[in-house]
Amino acid sequence: MTMVAGQPTDSSGRSTGNGASTEAPPPRVRVLDLETVAERVGCSKGHVSKLINGKVKGMSVLPAVRIGRRVYVLEATLEAWLKGCETSWRSK
User: Model-level pTM?
Assistant: First the structure.
């Protein structure tokens, strides 16, 4: 038996399922829908859509994840984008 990524494996490399993993679970990623992003930023969902599509002059594009017709923004991405906007606004 060998260990791969903290999991015991048999001779074929498959996990045997014995023993507890020594790795911490991956951090949970929070995703926000357009309505939540709009509430946090203080604007409408339509304006958030324009930010995501790069249609707001003088503003950087807000990165988003599309799953079918739904659009989500990662919470960490929104926070970084807001900090970048604050920095660029202050430097003008």
Answer: 0.67
